[in-house]
């Protein structure tokens, strides 16, 4: 593996964790370091860091808060 690619991977714990879980990416990056952008995309998707996933997570949190507020209102009335 090229030193700059190796340094890129080791400077972030999340990247190392992803490489450990998906060793095929180590082989891909060793053969073709230009695939680093694909690696980043795959890693973000795996850890739920894409914009779509973040919006979904935010929506789920809003639903949960709304449900808790509704339950508090019911408890207060009863």
Automatic annotation (TrEMBL):
Native organism: Thalassobacillus hwangdonensis
Protein's name in the database: YlbE-like family protein
InterPro entries noted in UniProt: YlbE (IPR025613)
Pfam families: YlbE
